[in-house]
Amino acid sequence: MKAWFPTTLRGVCMGIADIIPGVSGGTLALILGIYQRFVGAVSAIGPGLLLAALKGSFWSRLREGLTSPEVLGDTEEDAYVGHTLFLLFLGAGIGTALLIGARVLPTLLNLYPAPMKGFFFGLVLASVVIPFRQMKERGGKQALAFLLVLVGTWTLMGVPIAQSGKARGEITVSLSEASK
Length: 180
Fold this sequence. Notes:
The chain is an all-alpha fold. The chain contains 8 helices and no strands. α2 packs across α7.
């Protein structure tokens, strides 16, 4: 299972990104270099995987793949096993991050707004830079679009959150005696 630890950590990163406003887990999958594998694994979910899971050999290969993923070969069943293990460990990381991050992130946003905005800006910037690097054709139009996104993101990160929209006041509840 130690071999799957990096996948779980990537899942934690994706889960944290899902909690952050403006950043998605898919964006972080792209940044972490697992986007294609993630899409392939999700695409494998279907009747073929269900039929494979009905066989005893699938489960024995799954147990073998838990400890050493390199034993999985190029067969269709091994591909299903690999996809299943990948999604299980990625999902464990995402779930852990969602459970912990949902409790911690709001506090961090309140206590450290500037560093958290910087962190978010860095994630958004990375989510733009990586696809830009992967583009086969890079010209003036693409550079202009990149700069516009950069300036737009920078501008939006500086917009203050209006506090006036929050409810304030006092509520009094009184119950009258029931008549008999």
